[in-house]
Amino acid sequence: MSIRDSINTSIKNIANDIASMIQSRANNTLSNLTDEGVEYIKELAEIKAGEYANQELSNLTATGLSQYNVFCVNTGEVDTNGAPAFLSLTDNVLTTSGSFDVTTANGTIYTISDTLEYTADNLEDGTYKIFIDPVNKSISLTQNEITYGSAFPSTAVSGDYLLNTSKVPYDFQKITITTDTDEEGTETTTSTVTKGLNEVYAGTLTISSGEGNLTLNCYNKNIILTNALTGKADVDLSNLTDTGTSTAAGYAMPSSTYTDLTLGSSGSTYTAPADGYFCVVKYNGSSTNANYISLTNNTAGSLQIECRSTAVSSASGRVFVPAHKGDTVTCGYNMVGSTVSFRFIYAVGSV
Questions:
Q1: How far from each other are the two terminal CA atoms of the chain, in whole angstroms?
Q2: Which one, 88, 163, 205, 286, has least CB within 10 Å?
Q3: Positive/negative CA dihedral, 45, 47, 52, 55
Q4: How far apart (Å, rounded) are the C-alpha atoms in residues 198 and 69?
């Protein structure tokens, strides 16, 4: 066999090998699958389909969608009034009672059947948050803050907590802040965040003069929503504090922001661009007549403010009238002197 024939044979063998490899692979339409290949694809499809919720959502798992709210106690004993009774306080000792369910921040449900205790002696007066850890089966107290959101605030101190609600599942975290000083006196602050905590927020313990008062969160209470609404005003503003009432009243007061207008002839009408005040100052301009200038809010029941000057040319009339956005105001006058100013002053709440 010549060298050329040997090369040609080698090339043919390689080509046959490549052809065999290609034939053993599925094409892009899968039309050349064998019966075994088709059955394998069907099996994979059934496995993947089983991982998704059906139309009735009857195949959801506890971790896929907990039937309980997270980060709280969900079930347990109740007293004669129907209030939670999974935890009691006797002689400053916290003790759990009966069996109850809790759901951690990440949606994992635990049943606690063991009796847990915490001795709350020698505590300073104040309010303490009560945590129950279903994994370590323990009770703990803290006066540190819990932030509900996506990150610790800049004001966080060591020991504060974050319920990270920026993504599902939620994550309960704790920050530890340490400060080290080197030989030259330079301080270095380090923040360490521990994630995946299992504690749930069970209630509060208030200590006053050595006596404790226990308040338990309602079963299945949406702690996240409750805290989000804490400090928010009711729709009728009935729960405003003195500061809130003062702030609300201040919104109607004139601000330092204004727009100068051109005063037209007497009887001209102007439209308020926002909540605020129309204000005009004009000289009488006559030494023989006691003239006037007025502003009338045509929308607000013809509320009118009028000023009459003495028969002195340098005398001036100064009037203002409040107006809501869109109110029409008419300026009437017979003063003939120059206009010092005519402007719309915005209310504080409109700036």
A1: 98
A2: 88
A3: positive
A4: 14
Q: Token match 């003062």: residue? A: 246
> For the purposes of burial, counting CB atoms within 10 Å of the CB of 298, is it exposed (0-12), middle (13-18) or buried (19 or more)?
middle
Cα 89 from Cα 128, distance rounded (Å): 14
Query: Per residue in 41-64, pLDDT tens?
Result: 666 665 555 545 555 555 544 444
- C-beta separation of 132 from 149 below 8 A: no
User: From CA 344, how far away is CA 273, in angstroms rounded?
Assistant: 8
Closest by CA to 193, choosing from 169, 163, 219, 218, is: 163
Asked if residues 295 and 329 have their Cβ atoms less than 8 Å apart, the reply is yes
Q: What tokens were used for 11?
A: 């090339």
- Position 166 scores a pLDDT of 87
The tokens of 74 are what?
């969900």
Which of 62-71, 230-239, 313-322 has the weakest average pLDDT? 62-71
DSSP at 348: G
List 234's β-bridge partners, or say none: none
Residue 313 CB-half CA count within 13 A: 3
* Distances 234 to 229, 239, 240, 244, 279 between C-alpha atoms, Å: 10, 6, 8, 12, 35
248 phi, psi to nearest 5 deg: -60, -40
Tell me phi and psi for residue 246, to 5 degrees: -65, -40
The rounded distance, in Å, linking the Cα atoms of 276 and 259 is: 11
Which two tokens mark 277? 């005040």
User: Which residue, 77, 229, 211, 67, is CA-closest to 148?
Assistant: 229
